[in-house]
Design brief:
Keywords: Coiled coil. Residues 33-63 form a coiled coil. The chain has one domain (3-95). The chain is 88% helix and 0% strand. It is mostly helical and 96 residues long. It has two helices and no strands.
């Protein structure tokens, strides 16, 4: 090969202008973009799932708090009833 042809070939290789290389790069780029799209969709789905789970968690925490308050109120009422029953029977708090 002549030096000129060899130099042109080297330049072409370095610039990546061979059609085969362009085609390979295009396929790789396409595959990478497809993978990125798939990963972005999955990430968005997971973010949505996390938001849903956080909302559910908040709801459950509110329900738990309400249940605890109801139990505390019921316990107070029960203690008050027992104390008032004890007073009518002549018993003090130490007798319970």
């Amino acid at each position: 090969m002549s030096t000129e042809v060899q130099l042109r070939r080297n330049i072409t290789i370095k610039e990546g202008k061979f059609p085969e290389q362009k085609h390979v790069e295009s396929d790789d780029d396409f595959n990478v973009h497809k993978q990125i799209e798939v990963l972005v969709r999955k990430l968005e789905e997971k973010a949505g799932e996390i938001e849903d789970l956080e909302a559910l968690n908040r709801t459950l925490m509110v329900k738990e708090r309400r249940s605890n308050l109801e139990l505390q109120e019921a316990r107070k009422e029960l203690i008050d009833v027992r104390i008032s029953q004890g007073k009518t029977l002549g018993l003090g708090p130490q007798d319970f």
